[in-house]
Amino acid sequence: MTHALEERRRRREELVALARAYVDDLAQRITVVAATVAGSVARGDFNVWSDVDVVIVAENLPPRTPERMAVVMEGRFPRVQAVAFTPDEFRAAVKKSNRLVLDAIEHGIPLRGDVAAIVQAAPMKDR
After folding, report:
1. What is the CATH number of the domain that holds 12?
2. Residue 127 confidence (pLDDT) above 80
3. Nearest Cα to Cα of residue 36 among 115, 119, 94
4. What is the pLDDT of residues 28-45, one digit of tens each?
5. Sheet holding 32-38: strands in order across?
6. Do 85 and 55 contact (CB within 8 A), yes or no?
7. Are 105 and 119 in contact (CB under 8 A)?
């Protein structure tokens, strides 16, 4: 039993390292305010088919989905599934009870910055 737990822990660490490498690569192209692993990998209930869900909060993202996805997916790492928000969009997603965003706040494994701190920050237009 101990061996199985150690193997699972090792696999989770590998998936988190993959997500961290992805965020480091992305941060060379855009201003990443915060990033966290969410979903099944963060909760620990992942399986061999699970993707690594990464919630990104970044400045100056393209407003249109196709262009935004092109930025986020450029140099995409296998098994990494990223969703990107601006800080204001992230706060709006919290207010709308977006499941992935709430999961990122509650169970997330931080990779860069603090997604929860973004919720407390004043919206950009109010600064």
Report:
1. 3.30.460.10
2. no
3. 115
4. 999 999 999 999 999 999
5. 80-85, 52-58, 32-38, 109-112
6. yes
7. yes
Question: What DSSP character marks residue 70?
Answer: H
Domains identified in the chain, total number? 1
* Domain containing residue 74: 2-126
Residues 25-46 as b or e (16 or more Cβ within 10 Å = b) = ebbeebebbbbbbbbbbbeeeb
**Are 54 and 80 contacting, i.e. CB atoms less than 8 angstroms apart?**
yes
Closest listed residue to residue 19, CA positions, set 106, 107, 82, 100: 82
Structure tokens at 107: 């169970």
Quickly tell me which residue has 């990464």 as its tokens. Answer: 54
pTM of the model: 0.89
59-96 pLDDT per residue, tens: 989 999 999 999 999 887 888 999 999 999 999 999 99
